[in-house]
UniProtKB/TrEMBL annotation:
Domain EDRF1 N-terminal: 134-648
Segments of skewed composition (Gly residues): 79-89
Segments of this protein annotated with the region Disordered: 1-26, 58-121, 307-357, 605-648, 1219-1238
Protein name: Erythroid differentiation regulatory factor 1
Source organism: Sarcophilus harrisii (Tasmanian devil)
Sequence ranges assigned to domain EDRF1 TPR repeats region in this UniProt record: 924-1320
Superkingdom of source: Eukaryota
Length: 1333
């Protein structure tokens, strides 16, 4: 104790040696955080405290005041309260209800904050050395409505406080908003005070704060071991936060006697606790102390120091009777909740505007539901001020040791001059300060971080003196000493006890200690209330549900919210829904269900290799009700309900003796605040979407139930499935009908931009029902879209079409309700139509399973039926029927798919989404190009089928030409689509298909030309054929130019080259076989054929190793063969111009040799190789016929025989094939064999073999003649003689073999092979001729 005006000592520093600059930075950071968390008009700052070394002015009027004697710290050793004893002077516990001992400081409007101290806040936390113990305390003001702090006026001695001052109960800026109350600061806590604070500081609830309560409730709990008075508090749990409110049993039961409410609790109370309950009236002394305290505070603000009588008109207010003040001072209790009929039905109170899309917006909109539904006026008259309003002068975030509390306080703080922050108390000088009063004063100053206390003493209302006491000295005052360490232990034990037993969110727990009892009991009122007829009789039900809802809203709207907290949000919302009545709170229920659906990320990709979702990670913020509760016990014994007396079986938990609260860590829980809520594991996409749809359905039901015009709607039974019929192409009108439906769709899309809204249920645009239903419908459409996409990946195309139909029906309803279509929703629609086009295309390509797809399409769950029923309340849902019908016609399905893509593209174009979503735009155009290619191929194949099936006709039919036009138009549009997005590869493929279409046109004209000429007329290559083949070549060349190089796409490049080579080859072959000699000269035809063949050879890649390489080699060999044959024919028919004849001879020999080389590389073309070699022999014979000298002829004959010898490989391949064929025929029955293919092959072999035998015999005979004539000459050598003998023997063997009839084909080939071996051996020097077989 020191005199007022003495030197101010420094506030004790924080233990742990934290540097001053670190403290300052931490304070500034926390201040910024607090400011960001509050609305703009409110600033966040720290409570004032003295700064070390501050210089203040001296006030002379206080220097004569005496010091108060302190109790030495040694007197506090071992002092802990226990049952039946306290720490008051003399060892006897003082009565807690002593007059003025627990009086409230004053009116709520007297709490002020200094402007200077707010700019430079004091330390955030301080370690107080109190009575040899230390506690850590830090207080941060989160909100204050107090006016600027004013200095208090020292009253002159002998001032009579029984006389009212002139300013009593009048409005005053110094007193704040509560200046007119007769009671000053009401000590009575209000029934929902913690909820008001929780609503205002929703960020702190469930996460950072352990307790939210009025400071009076906190003090009452911490004084339990010292006090004999009763304790009655309601406890609620939200996450890890406990909300504490006073439960005034007397007021509650008085109301029950009048209204009949709460009778179940009154009966329970009388049966188990107090059988002879009766209301206790407050004494006259109580009202007397209240009155002089109020007058004292007004005197202190007035500052004139003299009593001024009040005018006669105000005199009756000086001494109000208890009956008159009861309703003002008492905390009136609410009746059971009843929704006013106009709340949910009147949409006129809702804000008008466009429909929001962001979940955070709709959550924020519905988060204001209490305001929109007038929740503050849901209670009877006189209760509105005690409803859900935070009416504390200041809200403080108080950290006491490791306990974080959000506390509401109305304690007046005075300041000015030498003492910028002090609390002011009035005490009866005849009554000493006891322990309860000391703890009360100490906790008030600690919570508000006020360093000093000014005490005014009076005797019978006459002011005697003032004294100044430091906050840290209060625990050591004479007659009022207590241990701060014990207070800390009490706080920790009570918090652990409550958190260990108040485990269910949404439940109302009742902490009760009877007057004069040492036993503290905890009851679950929600469980008791559920045993009654109406579970909504608990008035805490609605505020708790709204708070759960608000906490979930707040967590949802945090942009940086981690998904691991989704389990907590889900638990909050589910508990909220359990508490609310569906018929009374449709808006909150609809919004909660919508938020539950938003917790599931529909477009979230499934992680491979993970059995659990990342949403299942543990979190410290909450718990799961589904988990099994473990018994709460520790080494000091159990404090659960199992050890309760028989009469207390209803209690959840019991503290057997209040003395246990003083034992350190007596009730420290052995487990955490329950494990975290686990988010449900969805093993697949369908399960996740079904959960979303279940929440959407509940939300839609809630919205629909709140709409007035229910009876005006067309009757529909949700249990009756809506028939999903499909129509045949003949009924629906085909592609022509699609064109009309598409035009109507585009008109509708245009009207959406103008803001038309057509709701059949009569919802008012802008009402909460309208906004909420829009969001729920949009969510359902997204869920059905994801379900359709998942079914598509599983190749369940019927199911996929059913889901995308529901998605489009939902979107159609959204369009009917929407007054301002946003770009994001239009993008969704474009995506839906794109997927619908994919499904229709896959259905067309898998027509064999149409029956199974139809069964999948017609199946419908009850949930889908109910959602569709809700949609039909607003629209017919037929806007996209053209896109979702399951047709049986292939052309119709392809057309529908194309129209879906075109509609998706149109939406992107007219809504300017093309530039905002380039990836989706590219995908749509790719699909448009692809479907147009599919339709073009479909028409092209139809035209080819007509060509093969038609009867002989002299002209092309009109139907065929129409199909060509359709196919060409589709290819042309598809090429344009791909070129617009620079997709060279796909553009090249469509150009290639267009070239194929031109070839089909050419073939059709060729067939018509052949039919026109008749069977006897000679067929010629027509101009129409040439025209279309040249067009095909142009398209193939465009495809190559589109690709640029082979590196772009080797496969497509090779394919286009092959098609181009084939076109040149076909055109050259037709010109060669059916030369148009009636229009062109022979030389011109030969030139065109040669050029076309060489171009075909140019685009035929024989060197690159690929699957097509054998085909290319065969094609190249055939080209060389045909060119050689053409030059051979020219040489035979040409007369004169020896130079040209020589050129043709050289070219023929060149192409024959190249053809032989290429055919020798192939293992499956022995007949072609044999034919080419025979033509070479014929070419040699032709040359020999024009020779005159014997030497030249002999040389030519020798070359021809060499060519015959080189056919040995071809005969070996033929023999091998025949041998395998005969073995297969032996192993298989004649019925299973296929003789047609073998006979055809044999006929060709027999024909070639006969030609070969005749030509070989001719060559051997001519060789024998020439060698025999040369023998007569002197120059005849021995080698020639040997060759002559060899040829004679071979000729003889050949004649005998051909003369023997019949001989098998295999035997004839063996003879030929033997003769080849004989001739080869005879040509070698000294070779021996083998004997005949």
């Amino acid at each position: 104790m020191r005199k007022l005006g003495s030197e101010v000592k420094a506030w004790p520093p924080v233990r742990g040696g934290e540097p001053a600059h670190a403290q300052r930075e931490r304070r500034e950071a926390l201040a910024r955080l607090c400011m960001a968390a509050l609305p703009p008009p409110v600033r966040s700052f720290f409570l004032p405290s003295f700064r070390p070394g501050a210089e203040v002015a001296r006030e002379e009027q206080w220097e004569s005041l005496p010091r108060r004697r302190r109790v030495p710290p040694s007197a506090l050793s071992g002092g802990r309260p226990g049952p039946g004893r306290g720490l008051a002077c003399g060892g006897a516990m003082a009565e807690p209800r002593e007059a003025g001992a627990e009086a409230a400081p004053g009116p709520s409007g007297l709490s002020v904050l200094p402007g200077e101290a707010a700019e430079e806040p004091g330390p955030q936390g301080s370690v107080l050395l109190l009575g040899g113990n230390e506690v850590k305390s830090r207080a941060v003001v989160k909100y204050s409505s107090a006016p600027p702090r004013a200095a208090f006026a020292r009253l002159e001695e002998k001032t009579d406080l029984k006389l009212p001052p002139a300013n009593w109960l009048r409005e005053s800026a110094k007193l704040g908003p509560a200046g007119t109350t007769i009671l000053g600061n009401s000590k009575r806590s209000k029934p929902f005070s913690s909820f008001g604070m929780a609503y205002d500081f929703i960020d702190s609830v469930g996460n950072d704060v352990d307790v939210v309560s009025d400071s009076e409730n906190i003090k009452k709990l911490l004084k339990i071991p010292y006090s004999k008075s009763h304790v009655s508090m309601a406890v609620h749990r939200i996450g890890r936060t406990l909300l504490l409110d006073e439960l005034d049993i007397q007021e509650l039961f008085m109301r029950s006697s009048q209204t009949g409410d709460w009778t179940w609790l009154k009966e329970f109370y009388q049966r188990l606790i107090d059988q002879k309950w009766q209301r206790k009236k407050k004494s006259k002394e109580h009202w007397y102390q209240k009155a002089i305290l109020s007058k004292f505070l007004y005197y202190s603000i007035n500052g004139d120091g003299a009593a001024q009588p009040v005018p006669s008109s105000g005199e009756p207010r000086a001494s109000p009777s208890p009956d008159q003040t009861h309703d003002t001072e008492g905390a009136s209790w609410p009746a059971p909740f009843e929704m006013p009929p106009s709340v949910s039905d009147d949409p006129s109170t809702s804000n008008q505007g466009s429909e929001p899309l962001e979940p955070s917006y709709i959550v924020g909109h519905v988060a204001s539901a209490p305001k929109e539904q007038n929740l503050t006026t849901l209670f009877n008259d006189g209760e509105n001020s005690q409803g859900l309003k935070n009416d504390f002068v200041r809200n403080i975030l108080w950290t006491f040791e490791d306990i974080h509390m959000l506390v509401g306080s109305n304690m007046p703080i005075f300041g000015g001059g030498r003492y910028p922050a002090v609390s002011l108390r009035l005490r009866d000088n005849n009554k000493p300060i006891n322990v309860l009063t000391g703890i009360d004063y100490w906790l008030d100053n600690l919570i508000c971080n006020v360093p000093e206390l000014v005490m005014c003493f009076h005797v019978n209302g006459i002011v005697q003196k003032y004294e100044m006491i430091k906050t840290e000295e209060i625990p050591n005052l004479e007659n009022s000493n207590f241990s701060t360490k014990v207070i800390k232990d009490i706080a920790q034990n009570i918090l652990s006890f409550l958190k260990s037993n108040c485990t269910k969110e949404g439940h109302t727990y009742w902490l009760f200690k009877a007057s004069g009892s040492d036993i503290v009991k905890l009851y679950d009122l929600t469980t008791l209330c559920e045993e009654t007829e109406d579970k909504y009789q608990n008035p805490f039900t609605v505020p708790v549900a709204i708070l759960l809802y608000k906490v979930a809203c707040n967590m949802m709207m945090k942009k940086n919210q981690n998904k691991k907290h989704y389990g907590t949000i889900r638990t909050l919302l589910l508990n909220c829904l359990k508490l609310l009545d569906k018929g009374r709170h449709p808006q909150i229920i609809a919004s909660a269900n919508y938020m539950l659906s938003e917790l599931f990320q529909l477009d979230e990709p499934k992680k491979e290799g993970s059995s659990e979702s990342p949403l299942n990670e543990n979190s410290d913020e909450s718990y799961s009700e589904e988990e099994e509760e473990m018994p709460d016990s520790d080494e000091n014994g159990s404090y659960g309900a199992s050890s309760d007396p028989p009469d207390d079986k209803k209690a959840v938990a019991v503290i057997k003796s209040v003395g246990e609260l003083s034992v350190p860590e007596k009730y420290k829980s052995i487990h955490q605040i329950r494990p975290s809520c686990t988010f449900p594991v969805c093993h697949d996409t369908e399960e996740r979407c079904r959960l979303v749809l279940s929440y959407v359905l509940e939300g839609l039901k809630s919205v629909d139930s709140s709409i007035k015009k229910e009876s005006d709607l067309p009757a529909a039974d949700p249990n009756t499935p809506i028939p999903l019929k499909y129509e045949d192409e003949s009924a629906s009108g085909g592609p022509e009908c699609l064109e009309k439906q598409m035009a109507l769709f585009l008109d509708k899309m245009g009207s959406l931009q103008e803001g038309h809204c057509s709701s059949q249920s009569g919802m008012t645009p802008g009402s909460w029902q309208h906004k909420m239903k829009l969001q729920l419908i949009l969510k359902s459409s997204k869920a059905y879209y994801v379900l359709s996409d998942a079914a598509m990946s599983l190749r369940k195309y019927g199911r996929a079409l059913r889901y995308i139909k529901l998605a489009l029906q939902s979107h159609d309803t959204y369009c009917c309700l929407c007054t301002n279509m946003l770009s994001e929703v239009l993008l969704f629609l474009s995506q839906y139509l794109t997927l619908c086009g994919d499904i229709q295309l896959m259905l067309a390509q898998n027509a064999n399973n149409r029956a199974a797809y139809l069964e999948e399409f017609n199946y419908q769950t009850k949930e889908d039926q109910e959602i569709l029923h809700s949609l039909h309340r607003e629209s017919s849902c037929q806007g996209f029927a053209w896109a979702t019908d399951l047709s049986t016609d292939l052309e119709c399905q392809l057309s529908v798919s194309c129209k879906c893509y075109e509609a998706a593209n149109e939406i992107l174009l007219f809504s300017d989404l093309k530039s905002q979503n380039p990836e989706h735009y590219v995908q749509v155009l790719k699909r448009m190009g692809n479907i147009r290619n599919e339709i073009g191929v479909f028409y092209m194949n139809q035209a080819a089928a007509i060509q093969t099936e038609r009867v002989v006709s002299k002209s092309v039919s009109a139907a065929e030409q129409q199909l060509w036009k359709k196919s060409f138009s589709c290819f042309e549009k598809g090429i344009h689509n791909f070129e617009s997005i620079n997709d060279a590869t796909n553009a090249a493929l469509l150009l290639c298909n267009t070239g194929r279409l031109m070839r089909i046109c050419a073939q059709a004209h060729g067939a018509a030309a052949a039919a026109a000429g008749g069977e006897d007329a000679r067929r010629e290559f027509s101009p129409e054929e040439a025209l279309y083949y040249n067009k095909a070549i142009d398209y193939y060349l465009k495809a190559l130019r589109s690709l640029g190089t082979r590196d772009v796409h080797p496969t497509v490049w090779d394919s286009v080259n092959w098609e181009l080579s084939t076109t040149y080859f076909t055109m050259a072959t037709l010109q060669q076989d059916y030369a148009p000699l009636s229009r062109k000269a022979q030389e011109q035809v030969e030139k065109e054929v040669s050029e076309a063949m060489m171009k075909s050879l140019k685009y035929c890649d024989v060197d690159t190793a690929s699957a097509r390489q054998p085909l290319c080699q065969y094609r190249a060999a055939t080209i060389h063969h045909r060119l050689a044959s053409m030059y051979h024919s020219c040489l035979r028919n040409q007369v004169g111009d020896e130079h040209l004849r020589k050129q043709h001879r050289v070219l023929a020999e060149l192409h024959y040799s190249k053809a032989v080389k290429l055919f020798q590389l192939l293992k499956d073309a022995p007949c072609e190789l044999l034919r080419v070699q025979l033509e070479r022999v014929a070419f040699a014979e032709f040359q020999m016929a024009s020779q005159n000298s014997s030497v030249g002829k002999l040389k030519t004959l020798s070359g021809a025989l060499d060519i015959m010898m080189k056919t040995e490989r071809a005969f070996q391949l033929i023999r091998k094939e025949l041998t395998e064929e005969s073995e297969q025929s032996k192993s298989q029955s004649s019925s299973t064999s296929d003789p047609s293919a073998a006979s055809l092959h044999r006929e060709e072999v027999v024909k070639l073999l006969s030609i070969f035998e005749s030509r070989l015999a001719f060559l051997l005979l001519q060789s024998i003649k020439l060698l025999s004539s040369a023998r007569k000459k002197a120059s005849h050598s021995e080698d020639e003689e040997g060759l002559l003998q060899t040829n004679k023997q071979a000729y003889s063997h050949l004649l005998r073999a051909t003369a023997e009839q019949p001989t098998s084909l295999l035997q004839r080939i063996d003879v030929i092979l033997h003769l080849m071996g004989q001739l080869s051996a005879g040509k070698e020097p000294g070779g021996a001729v083998p004997p005949p077989p």
